[in-house]
Model the fold of this input.
Amino acid sequence: MEIIKGLDFRLRESSVSLGKFDGIHLGHRYLLGKVLQQKAFIPTVFTFELNKAVSKIYTQKEKDYILEKMGVQREVVFPFNDETKRMAPEEFIKEILVKRMDVRHICVGTDFRFGRNREGDIHTLERFQDTYHYSLDIVPKLTLDDETISSTLVRNLMEMGNLSRANELLGEPYFVMGEVLHGNALGRTMNMPTANLLPDGEKKLLPYGVYATTVKVGDRQYFGVTNVGKKPTIGEYAVGIETYIMDFQEEIYGETIQVFFHDFIRKEKRFDGIGQLHRQIERDKEAAGRLLADKFLQK
Done:
């Protein structure tokens, strides 16, 4: 997938979906599906630089990974600065969508807003359809079990620890993607080597605790058990994500992996010593193995 940043670009024949796409939940996936159906044009996502004040379900790198996996060929990450935020709605359509993107088809949700002071909306896009010769799909918000799906709802579910419902609305298990870093090697001394990730400071994390996970290393997938938190027993207080990968012995420092969260096992807690911690990790491995086997091996 081609990723375009800034204002200096020229594309051709774009079928484009516009939005923030924070969580890439079922509603976003439905919207993107409409763009991917336009076989005559090049499927393109136009997204805005994310607000740093809002915690992100998925980082930009994680969003890129999902979009590429879905079949999106191009992603424009549009800067939000003094120049762009002063653009009138028609100027945005004419200068960005038409001149720079050669837009042929636009797909947006009913609440999409754009342009100076968020003055542009779906009615603005409708009004200029004939002038600039693009077709338009306006997609209503998706609901599931009488709940309107939104990134805010997914974030709230994560905070409440309702992982299964959050995953259901996301359309796949919530995941963290990152480079494997060197840790304190304590797991290796217990014959339980772990993969350590340092999450982006703006990333929305699940409540601290231990989870049954699957881990994607390259094109292979493994069962895992993952701690999210500060590892109080060994006196580390930076928030980290530490995963024991089952049936795996390779050195993967410096490699990028994805950790997918399936089930909550227990809260993070402080133990009296390393021996007690070791025994608990063994129990966590057994619990994760049972939960994951029920999901993946008995289908």
Observations:
- The chain has two domains: 2-147, 174-296.
- DSSP finds nine helices and 14 strands in the chain.
- The chain has a mean pLDDT of 90.
